[in-house]
Amino acid sequence: MEAVSIVIAGGGLSGLYAAYRLERHGVRDVLLLEARPALGGRIASLAAASTNDRFDLGPTWYWPEFQPELHCLLDELELARFVQPDAGDLMVERMAGQAPARVAGYPGMPVSMRVAGGMAAVIDALHSRLTRTRIVLGRPLRRVRSTEDGLELDVGGGAGGIESLHAGHLLLAMPPRLAAETVEFQPALPQALERSWRDAPTWMAAHAKYLAVYRRPFWRSLGLSGGARSALGPLVEIHDASNPAGGAALFGFFGVPAQVRRSVPESAWRARCRAQLVRLFGPDAAVPEIDAIRDWAADPFTATAADCDGHGSHGSHQSAAPPAAAESGPWRGRLTGIGSEWSPRFPGYVAGAVEAADRGVAALVENLG
Ligand SMILES: Cc1cc2nc3c(=O)[nH]c(=O)nc-3n(C[C@H](O)[C@H](O)[C@H](O)COP(=O)(O)OP(=O)(O)OC[C@H]3O[C@@H](n4cnc5c(N)ncnc54)[C@H](O)[C@@H]3O)c2cc1C
């Protein structure tokens, strides 16, 4: 059986950042398992061939005023940033049969910042700096056994079916609820710990984004910010998603619950979203160069059934992070949760993935002596 010191399960931001920190601490023999065929997790983007640009389908913003550690990491990774464009009026749809109203826009407070090239630039920057971590894609962790001399991990997805590995420590770089529901722990995790993981909603897992890329930001010449709020939908909150030096785009969050989204074909939702953008921003919105929907609730490596039970409102958030490790028993010192939802200060956010991974790596490095 192959043996490694540390396995990181999950190749989203928390997993890649943990690998980056471990390398900085000189830790060798790290294997990162990612279930999907690509890295990034909830950080995903749509590429527009015409402008060579990427547009976020997952996270878009961070807030440097209260997330200074993330701001410093972006400095360290030499990534350019810009303020979310919001100059111009906001469109508001209140009820059917009534024309949308145009109201004065307002600057976002605190200031929302974006990464040039989209959040995926953070994933690329971390990945390109990893020199020793072994990364395998398309390999979901299925089962972990805690034994006298370490951990035995069963990993799926390979040509030969399930493969087993021996590891000293496991960093779970995925949402706690997903870990509790999709990874089998032998023996079972302590009951209270397991319950706290299952009870932690995966932030934004129930949501879906619509994105439309245009040749030019035509709404700006109309004095509009590209922002809108709607009580009619299907999109409830719309923003300018353009890149400063590149393509123009709008994105919106669906206000329709996951179960309802599932019952209508994607092509029909796209047509409804385009029609809504025409109502709000005029006829130029009818013909995007490309448009796409990313429904996170339909993604088995993000959402579970429990995440999709919500009513579809955008922005509901967990209040407190669950414990990241067992305090006693066979799992003590063997397993640490480092996905964003384990972050005490920013659970569910991009900054949370960095904080949770930092804490997990610091504890691990201290134990390794
Ligand atoms: C639509 C949307 C909008 C958002 N907007 C914002 C925003 O504007 N600002 C902000 O701060 N945050 C936002 N977020 C949240 C942000 O995306 C997350 O906090 C962050 O990306 C979490 O990173 P992570 O590494 O902890 O988890 P994830 O990105 O979920 O990564 C987990 C990884 O683990 C993998 N995995 C799952 N199961 C297994 C397994 N069994 N074995 C191996 N690998 C596995 C997954 O494939 C995935 O790659 C948004 C999220 C969504 C979906």
Q: Short description, anyone?
A:
Helices cover 24% and strands 28% of the residues.
Record keyword descriptors for this entry.
elongated; about 375 residues; about 25% helix; 2 domains; binds flavin-adenine dinucleotide; eight-stranded mixed sheet; seven-stranded mixed sheet; FAD/NAD(P)-binding domain; Polyamine Oxidase, Chain A, domain 2; single chain
What gross morphology would you assign?
A: elongated
What is the domain total for the residues? 2
* Strand residues, percent: 25-35%
Listing every helix as H and every strand as E from the N terminus to the C terminus, the arrangement reads EHEEEHEEEEHEEEEHEHEHEEEHHEEH
Termini Cα gap: 26 Å
For the sheet with most strands, the description reads: 8 strands, mixed
Q: What ligands can be seen in this structure?
A: flavin-adenine dinucleotide
Mean pLDDT: 94
CATH-defined fold name of the largest domain: Polyamine Oxidase, Chain A, domain 2
Q: What is the helical fraction, as a range of percent? A: 10-25%
Poorly predicted spans: none
What CATH architecture label of the largest domain applies?
A: Alpha-Beta Complex
Q: Structural class from helices and strands?
A: alpha/beta
User: Radius of gyration, rounded?
Assistant: 21 Å
Number of helices: 9
CATH class of the largest domain: Alpha Beta
What does this structure look like?
The protein has 369 residues and is an alpha/beta fold. It has 2 domains: 1-43 and 119-202 and 318-369, FAD/NAD(P)-binding domain (3-Layer(bba) Sandwich); 44-118 and 204-316, Alpha-Beta Complex (Polyamine Oxidase, Chain A, domain 2), CATH 3.90.660.10. 24% of the residues lie in helices and 28% in strands. The chain is built from 9 helices and 19 strands. Strand 15 and strand 16 (235-240) form a beta hairpin. Helix 1 packs parallel to helix 3 (120-129), helix 1 runs parallel beside helix 9 (350-368) and helix 4 (176-182) packs across helix 5. The longest helix has 19 residues, at 350-368. The protein is elongated, with a radius of gyration of 21 Å. 44% of the residues are buried. The mean pLDDT is 94. The structure holds flavin-adenine dinucleotide. Flavin-adenine dinucleotide (FAD) binds next to helix 1, helix 4 and helix 9.
